[in-house]
Design a protein that fits this description.
193 residues; alpha+beta; 6 strands; two-stranded parallel sheet
Length: 193
């Protein structure tokens, strides 16, 4: 909520926050890492309690459980898919991530939901990024573009399965985006800076 209020008008955040639910996979992600438990867990367990814990799920299994329980009819944002590879207890090689994404796409279609998956393309090589783009139904690329003395955040629709192939190249444009008082604004009108 705090991060949202830094990026958007407080009134928009206040009106929408009651419909937003956050799910934290920190316990599964950090369990086998050197990160101290009190940094990611609300309660520090004693040594005896740690041994009694039956919840030994890895990140992919915990993600699957949460999506199965809460995904139907909802918009789900996963930040970030690259974290699944970085999780120490994931046992998930990168080659399984595109397969997982195709499964997510199929599940979202059946559930009547939408799953948005964030990935920082700088964390991947070109081949890995290409595999993720190919596994997705649609791909939006956000970049900073410099023009004159100001920078603009732009968005490109790189892929949109079933739609983009029917649009002529000259009609595929770089959209300028902005988060303002009215929310997320997308414009295909170029501003002179």
């Amino acid at each position: 909520e705090r991060e949202m209020s830094l990026a958007m008008d407080e009134e928009i955040v206040e009106e929408s926050i009651e419909n937003v639910e956050f799910h934290d996979l920190s316990p599964e992600f950090f369990r086998l890492s050197p990160v101290p438990r009190e940094w990611y867990s609300e309660q520090t367990k004693s040594i005896s309690e740690l041994g009694q814990s039956q919840d030994r799920k890895g990140v992919p299994e915990a993600l699957g459980d949460r999506l199965t329980k809460h995904g139907a009819g909802n918009v789900v944002v996963i930040d970030s898919i690259a974290d699944l590879v970085g999780a120490r207890n994931a046992d998930l090689p990168f080659s399984d991530i595109p397969v997982l994404m195709k499964g997510l796409s199929r599940a979202a279609h059946e559930w009547g939901g939408l799953i948005l998956v964030h990935v920082n393309n700088e964390t991947l090589d070109d081949q890995q990024h290409g595999q993720l783009v190919d596994a997705a139904d649609g791909t939006l690329l956000f970049e900073w573009e410099s023009g004159g003395s100001a920078r603009a955040r732009t968005m490109i629709v790189q892929q949109f399965r079933g739609v983009l192939s029917r649009i002529e190249d000259e009609n595929i444009v770089r959209f300028e985006t902005e988060i303002g008082d009215a929310g997320f604004d997308i414009s295909d009108v170029r501003k002179i800076r």
